[in-house]
């Protein structure tokens, strides 16, 4: 049985990165404790800085009292560099896309419904037509979860030599 999570979800942007960076790193450390030895996982601080440097960076963090329990972040895709490029037979007429880069929930708060709440809060009110994300192809249950949220797999990509192969997933943002 899932427990009810009483959390407050707060929104942050590019100018807040200095205040929230360590919070994101702390949640990541807990969420990936079993994989912290992996070189790609160890590069997470670089990804936080990379995404946070984008002026369109958007982040939501779930707080249970004063404890950060999960987050999601992303940014509008650069036109012509959307993750779906090369995976669709025809380019959508309206191609504005929001890239969901991370969705992370601390182990103690998983299977509580917090993941979809974070995802929906991140995309709520976004002007983009499409949302895109990637999920490790070795995590079929996560892919199935995203399919349950309306995403469909449109291809696969390995963006870095040491990264996993990812399923590229896309859905209408609204």
In short:
The chain has 174 residues and is of the alpha+beta class. It has helices at residues 17-31, 39-42, 44-52, 114-123, 140-148; strands at residues 8-13, 58-64, 67-76, 97-105, 130-136, 152-157, 166-172. The protein contains five helices and seven strands.
Element-level helix/strand string = EHHHEEEHEHEE
Strand content: 25-35%
* Low-confidence spans: none
Question: How is the largest sheet built, in terms of strand order?
Answer: 1-2-3-4-5-7-6
Can you describe this structure?
The protein has 174 residues and is of the alpha+beta class. The chain is built from 5 helices and 7 strands; from the N terminus they run βαααβββαβαββ. A 7-stranded mixed beta sheet has the order 1-2-3-4-5-7-6, with helices on both faces. Strand 4, helix 4 and strand 5 form a beta-alpha-beta unit. The longest helix has 15 residues. The radius of gyration is 16 Å and the shape is globular. It starts with 7 loop residues before the first strand and ends with a strand. The model has no long low-confidence stretch (mean pLDDT 92).
Distinctive features:
globular, single chain, alpha+beta
List the helices and strands and how they pair.
Elements: E1 8-13, H1 17-31, H2 39-42, H3 44-52, E2 58-64, E3 67-76, E4 97-105, H4 114-123, E5 130-136, H5 140-148, E6 152-157, E7 166-172
Parallel strand pairs: 4-5
Antiparallel strand pairs: 1-2, 2-3, 3-4, 5-7, 6-7
């Amino acid at each position: 049985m899932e427990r009810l999570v009483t959390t407050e979800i707060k929104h942050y942007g590019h100018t807040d990165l200095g205040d929230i960076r360590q919070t994101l790193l702390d949640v990541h450390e807990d969420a990936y404790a079993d994989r912290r030895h992996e070189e790609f996982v160890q590069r997470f601080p670089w990804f936080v800085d990379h995404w946070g440097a984008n002026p369109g960076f958007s982040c939501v963090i779930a707080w249970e009292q004063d404890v950060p329990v999960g987050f999601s972040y992303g940014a509008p895709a650069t036109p012509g560099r959307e993750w779906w490029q090369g995976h669709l037979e025809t380019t959508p007429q309206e191609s504005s896309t929001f890239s969901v880069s991370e969705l992370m929930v601390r182990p103690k708060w998983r299977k509580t419904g917090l993941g979809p709440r974070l995802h929906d809060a991140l995309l709520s009110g976004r002007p983009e037509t499409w949302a895109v994300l990637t999920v490790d192809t070795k995590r079929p249950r996560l892919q199935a979860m995203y399919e349950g949220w309306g995403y469909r797999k449109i291809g696969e990509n390995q963006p870095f030599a040491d990264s996993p192969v990812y399923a590229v997933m896309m859905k209408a943002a609204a």
